[in-house]
């Protein structure tokens, strides 16, 4: 395996520029973490007066932005922290990073000259203060572009479904294309004064190479602008969005490609090696796929957080009106599928507070004292407007009469409330039956090869047991929860190897046969559930899908 080995005594640096913070993770040549740092925007940069890293505009319904300069100052501050930790920057062979997906940065005409002539004696912030045509970047939380979404979908003959088939997703308010269209439609002077539009990921990469970095294929798929099969800009989508857009977006590139060598600014200011490579940055979700070592079709990851996210790997994507398909950041031929659920931990907490004495211990005891399948009780719990399925706030409960585990003859009756133990099992089984149903619609094998659980709730064994029973496969958990910055460091190493070999190499070759000795290792937490029980869950899932479809027809939001 020598051809896949990294140079001894070398480091690989990964960043994650997320909504609320900037993280850095440093790996050694054995893929073990040797350093990590965090800048929290609200507390470390309080003069921007952000709340959770963002500004919510009360005068413009749904408009949510972040100050672009805050991200730059965070990078200045991060390098101060890394310098104080005595990190030897000269040993870093490659840098890569993760950016919150969909967010966009608008460089004004003439800014490329500023980027290419940075003075190493001054901080970045001081030199880039006037480089942007808009100082507040639209981000993924923004939902003010519904009209623009419909206009872009209408430009495609088949509407939303045709747009999804081409770009991997129907039009979403948070996606970059609708955000760009809104700026062109309402602020044409600003659009015309913009020479380059970057994603957060390519914006940060641009700082490191001292020039405009390309947008990578994986993050580019979160814009409603890229043809995911051709891995090229879609002419129809570009024309539907804004004029002369391709020249402002620049080129696309594979995530494992080299963006450039590190800028002289970093060589002179922080003593990086002048041959240090900057590997294309990508989005936070693609980087999480790398950090979780998802690289085989049939692999599934479930991130359990404020919102829940399901990641899958496939060679044959079938984009539809739900979910998202992106080219894989770690496989030249593969794709990643992402399913997003807004009702995650906060909804579980709501049920805990109402039925389990506001205690996770009580919640877990109630979950354990109810039988799997919940006696045929099915719950739909939406504390917030749900993305998948598109349903408004509301809780809906049904009891399946004479439930025996077979689909034939199942009849449901709607009820107002369950007993507390059934409410607890109802929210857990409801969430994971929904995930299984939507994942199978996207071609997930049943059962999957394995599930890797991450996020706060992955520490809850009772929840992991429910996942194993519903999906019917082994469930693993990871050492570290910050998979995006870890994934970025892994991709830095992968990109370095690909560049050395002159082309793409499977990322798994870097850690094959030694995964358990690296910071990427995961442990088996729960064995696969009983297959007869899995089959009964399958029948219950089909019934749940029938009810869900009726709810969408009756109450669904477009």
From TrEMBL:
Domain of life, source organism: Eukaryota
Name of the molecule in the record: Uncharacterized protein
Organism taxonomic ancestry: Eukaryota, Viridiplantae, Streptophyta, Embryophyta, Tracheophyta
């Amino acid at each position: 395996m020598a051809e896949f080995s990294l140079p001894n005594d070398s480091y690989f640096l990964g960043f994650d520029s997320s909504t609320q913070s900037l993280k850095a993770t440093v790996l050694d040549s054995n893929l073990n973490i040797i350093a990590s740092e965090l800048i929290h925007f609200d507390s470390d940069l309080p003069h921007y007066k952000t709340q959770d890293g963002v500004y919510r505009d009360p005068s413009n319904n749904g408009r949510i932005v972040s100050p672009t300069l805050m991200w730059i100052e965070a990078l200045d501050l991060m390098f101060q922290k890394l310098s104080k930790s005595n990190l030897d920057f000269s040993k870093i062979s490659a840098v890569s990073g993760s950016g919150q997906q969909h967010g966009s940065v608008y460089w004004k005409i003439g800014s490329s000259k500023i980027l290419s002539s940075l003075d190493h004696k001054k901080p970045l912030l001081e030199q880039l203060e006037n480089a942007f045509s808009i100082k507040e970047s639209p981000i993924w939380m923004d939902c003010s572009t519904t009209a623009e979404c419909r206009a872009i979908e209408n430009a495609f003959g088949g509407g939303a479904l045709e747009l999804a088939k081409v770009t991997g997703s129907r039009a979403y308010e948070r996606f970059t294309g609708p955000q760009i269209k809104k700026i062109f439609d309402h602020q044409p002077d600003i659009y015309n004064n913009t020479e380059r539009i970057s994603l957060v990921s390519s914006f940060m990469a641009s700082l490191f190479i001292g020039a405009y970095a390309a947008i990578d294929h994986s993050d580019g798929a979160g814009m409603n602008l890229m043809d995911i099969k051709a891995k090229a800009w879609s002419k129809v989508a570009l024309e539907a969005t804004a004029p002369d857009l391709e020249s402002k977006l620049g080129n696309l590139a594979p995530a494992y490609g080299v963006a450039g060598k590190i800028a002289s600014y970093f060589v002179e200011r922080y003593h990086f090696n002048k041959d240090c490579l900057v590997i294309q940055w990508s989005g936070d979700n693609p980087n999480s796929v790398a950090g979780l070592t998802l690289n085989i079709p049939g692999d599934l990851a479930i991130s359990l957080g404020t919102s829940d996210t399901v990641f899958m790997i496939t060679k044959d994507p079938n984009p539809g009106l739900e979910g998202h398909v992106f080219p894989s950041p770690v496989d030249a031929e593969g794709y990643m599928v992402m399913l997003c659920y807004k009702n995650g931990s906060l909804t579980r907490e709501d049920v805990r507070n109402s039925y389990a004495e506001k205690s996770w211990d009580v919640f877990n005891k109630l979950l354990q004292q109810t039988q799997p399948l919940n006696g045929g009780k099915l719950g739909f719990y939406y504390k917030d407007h749900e993305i998948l399925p598109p349903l408004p706030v509301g809780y809906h409960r049904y009891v399946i009469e004479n439930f025996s585990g077979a689909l034939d003859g199942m009849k449901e009756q709607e009820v107002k409330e369950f007993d507390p133990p059934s409410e607890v099992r109802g929210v857990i089984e409801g969430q994971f039956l929904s995930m299984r149903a939507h994942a199978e619609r996207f071609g997930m094998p049943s059962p999957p090869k394995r599930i890797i659980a991450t996020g706060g709730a992955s520490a809850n064994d009772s929840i992991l047991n429910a996942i194993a029973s519903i999906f019917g496969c082994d469930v693993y958990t990871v050492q570290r929860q910050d998979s995006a910055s870890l994934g970025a460091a892994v991709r830095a190493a992968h990109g370095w190897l690909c560049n050395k070999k002159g082309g793409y190499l499977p990322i798994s070759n870097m850690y094959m046969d030694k995964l358990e000795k690296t910071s990427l290792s995961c442990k088996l937490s729960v064995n696969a559930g009983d297959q007869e029980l899995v089959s009964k869950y399958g029948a219950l899932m089909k019934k749940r899908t029938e009810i869900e479809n009726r709810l969408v027809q009756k109450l669904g939001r477009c």
